[in-house]
Amino acid sequence: MHGRNYIDGQWRNGGARLATTNPSDLDEIVGEYDQASVADAEDAIHAARRALPAWAAANIQLRGDMLRKVGDALYARAQDVGTLLAREEGKTLKEGIGEAVRAAQVFHYFAGETVRHPGQWYNSLRDGHNVIVSYEPVGVVAAITPWNFPIAIPAWKVAAALAYGNTVVLKPSEYAPGCAVLLAEMLEQAGVPNGVFNLLLGDGRSIGQTLIDGADAVTFTGATPTGRRILQMAAPTMTKVQLELGGKNPFIVLDDADLDVAVEAAAQGTWGQTGQRCTGSERIIVTKGIHDAFVERLVQTVSNYRVGHALDPQTEIGPVANQAQLDKNLGFINRARADGAELVAGGHVKEARTRGHFLAPTLFLNTTNAMELNREEIFGPVAGIIKVEDLDEAIAVARDCELALSSGIATTSLKSAERYRRASNAGMMTVNAPTAGVEYHVPFGGRAPSGFGGREQGAASAEFFTEIKTAYINHGVV
User: Fold this and answer.
1) Active site positions, annotated
2) pLDDT per residue over 318-339, tens digit each?
3) The domain that contains 239 carries what CATH number?
4) I need a surface site. Which of 52, 233, 356, 470 has the fewest CB within 10 A?
């Protein structure tokens, strides 16, 4: 696959090319992508700026129809998109197809949002007046997306931005840009006008400041340290910023939990999609009465996972997405062992029929909340179990972390579930379900430093992608 930049309705070659390899088979080159220059970034911003007035004023049915066409195309090509995603990012084929379908659902949802655009009318306190509150496009949006959801995250940023009348410059991760190229093709085929959507490929460090300075708003998903830098870079120009950042998500298991439900939710939340989800469970907090039975079942579950090539139908856990992430995971594992954590499953690189970044799903026992293992986001198939006395201690341990994205609890007590729902400081929480697995029609995001700015997805997207205008109308004047 040869990917090029898409600027002002034209596919443009770049200078140096960046190759991506299949994390399931390091001998396979998946694609070569032309890296965007600062000049390319400037051209993309200018194209989006020129296209903005007409797109902002475009008929809402026209905008909705175009977004629906993209959703239709994603549904029709879900197998192809999912296969590319599996080859370039390392999700299993089932996970990749599921992500492509979710992207399609997102575009269909926001196609409907074009005709559900928010706005209010109020009676005024003054006779002969009324008040209209309208939500207008924020302007040119720079969207910077990560490698772990290469089609779903670009979809929910791009679809929302376009639905509310903004123009977009998308910069996907250099580790897995192929799906973004396919998305650009689908938008072009759907008839999106020149300049309304633009795609820049390559390393964002060279063009990041150009995007931030030129855009009216920046939406970023990635690591918390990078998010902080973006916020600092945006401060001089007061560019509007939306950040969806890291998590160190706790999953509590109480003595009264249904053991089958608790084990399944913990396992899926921790090791699903190779643990490469910001909402994944990384701290499993278990009360003492159920601890031993839960640990026995969970160790059996994780030890039986089939790790292998992402396109192998027998594979349950695919490879780690790239060498840098694998090295990071192994570093956490080695330091956890040095800190005294007890390794009871995984912790080693696995061999397969091809050379790949295969890591055995990993679980530690006898960990504490003071260990690095339970303080810093790993973003891989690695977790530790923390044993606690009761719900009070579980809540204290769960809250003892600056990151506040997602959290969960397994219990059959409505009272305990409700107590934790109120006590959790995370932006999202689950009861008897994995901490990961969000839906497109409801708000998504965490509290700082796991998030900043308006929430993503659903109607909450309007908070970031629009600006409010309050108009006072004197209708008594003839």
Assistant:
1) 244, 278
2) 999 999 999 999 999 999 999 9
3) 3.40.605.10
4) 470
